[in-house]
């Protein structure tokens, strides 16, 4: 199934570009906590779903992308938002990554969080990330984001984060 999504970056792309991961492993600069979280998530991943380690990430709306990407943007390069497509993306609740990082040293709790990341059974998660090995660029989005929709994105992410904290204090 082809799904149209949004992707935020500081890099420039043109319509028709296929965005994949660089050939070198992208986790080389990750810290030990992040690597522990990624290893647990990978161990819990059902075989039919895309791996986080070999995938690109996108969001359902431009505002979701900018809610996540905005705080990460650094340097002189402007934020760019693209309309993209992915084939059969895997969806997962983004807030569970943060909770996994918090519990990186507690194997049983981290395993439970990783299981929920893929299964989505404990809660009606509201803020999902979409992952697939590649995405195609449809066009750059030049219209400004809707600030009210961005506020809603932040609330949905906050609700998911609060629920994750309740489930795994």
**Number of helix segments?**
5
List the domain count as a whole number.
1
List SSEs in N-to-C order. EEHEHEEHHEEH
CATH class: Alpha Beta
Class derived from helix and strand content: alpha+beta
Distance between the termini: 37 Å
Low-confidence stretches: none
Helical amount = 25-40%
Taking strands numbered 1, 2, ... along the chain, how are they ordered across the largest sheet? 1-4-7-2
- In one word, what is the shape? globular
- The count of strands amounts to 7
Largest β sheet strand count, sense and barrel closure: 4 strands, antiparallel
The average pLDDT score comes to 89
Work out the strand percent.
15-25%
Under CATH, the topology is which? ADP-ribosylation fold
Describe the structure.
The protein has 169 residues and is an alpha+beta fold. It has a single domain (2-167), classed as ADP-ribosylation fold (Alpha-Beta Barrel). The longest helix has 21 residues, at 147-167. The chain is globular, with a radius of gyration of 16 Å. The strands form two sheets. A four-stranded antiparallel β-sheet has the order 1-4-7-2. A three-stranded antiparallel β-sheet has the order 3-6-5. It has five helices and seven strands, in the order E-E-H-E-H-E-E-H-H-E-E-H. 37% of the residues lie in helices and 23% in strands. It has helices spanning 32-44, 62-69, 95-102, 107-119, 147-167; strands at residues 2-9, 18-20, 56-58, 80-87, 90-93, 128-132, 134-141. It starts with a strand and ends with a helix.
Keywords for this structure?
single chain; 169 residues; alpha+beta; 5 helices; 37% helix; globular
